[in-house]
Design brief:
The protein is an alpha/beta fold. It has a single domain, classed as Glycerol-3-phosphate (1)-acyltransferase (3-Layer(aba) Sandwich). The chain is about 35% helix and about 15% strand. It has six helices and seven strands. A seven-stranded mixed beta sheet has the order 1-7-6-2-5-3-4, with helices on both faces. α3 links the parallel β3 and β4. The mean pLDDT is about 95.
């Protein structure tokens, strides 16, 4: 028996509470919210530099979202909050079909899934990215929104560090990615092509948003990287 997707109301609860907390603790900004479709399945594909990225994007999204979060994170003090807000545990080591299946179920009920194509925390420049977002977009028939997450970690800070209270954090939603996939190409090649198109679109949006908002990406890979 497959594991059911988390209930939509959990993401709604997490969205309301998370946004309230971020607006109290930080100088948060969100841009491009009208680019996120008001209805239908959506994938928020975000860059990943700091510990709070997932919570920040989910809270600032105009719609409640379920993020794919590494299973190890559910064993930390954040675990109860992740479960209560309907986030989806992902085991990268085994190519987690259960997690992907739950994400597809969310998309098929016209929900929103958040994902980090880079797979773990780093510079956030999308030098490399996995194919999970492309697989979900194709199989879930979802609109892909490239999402820049800025300000959550500065150069030299630890992987688990939190930004200083009242520091400026920005989430910028980009224009939907339109995949250009020729007919008749094999499935694996099709997935590779789609993944590279998503990577390039997100990399371009993150670089442009970083320049426009005046918040540089970290210049290093954080010490103590845990891949969440």
């Amino acid at each position: 028996m497959s594991t059911p997707a988390p209930s939509a109301w959990k993401a709604t609860w997490g969205h309301v509470v998370g946004r309230g907390l971020f607006e109290v603790l930080y100088a948060v900004e969100r841009h491009g919210v009208t680019r996120v479709p008001r209805r239908g399945p959506v994938l928020l594909a975000a860059n990943h530099t700091g510990y709070l990225d997932g919570a920040l994007v989910a809270s600032m999204s105009p719609r409640p979202a379920h993020f794919l979060v590494l299973t190890d994170t559910f064993d930390t003090v954040a675990g109860p909050l992740l479960r209560a807000s309907g986030q989806i545990p992902l085991d990268q080591k085994v190519g987690d079909r259960t997690a992907l299946g739950r994400a597809i179920e969310v998309l098929r009920r016209d929900g929103v899934i958040g994902i980090f194509p880079e797979g773990g925390r780093g510079r956030g420049d999308l030098a490399e990215a996995g194919r999970g977002v492309a697989w979900l977009a194709i199989n879930g028939r979802a609109t892909i929104i490239p999402t820049a997450c800025l300000g959550t970690r500065a150069t030299g800070e630890h992987a688990d560090s939190w930004p200083r209270v009242r520091s400026r954090l920005v989430v910028d939603f980009g224009a939907p990615v339109v995949l250009e996939l020729p007919d008749g190409i094999p499935g694996r090649q099709r997935l590779h092509l789609a993944g590279e198109q998503v990577r390039l679109a997100l990399a371009g949006h993150v670089a442009e948003a970083s320049r426009r908002h005046g918040i540089p990406l970290p210049e290093d890979i954080p010490e103590g990287l845990v891949g969440t």
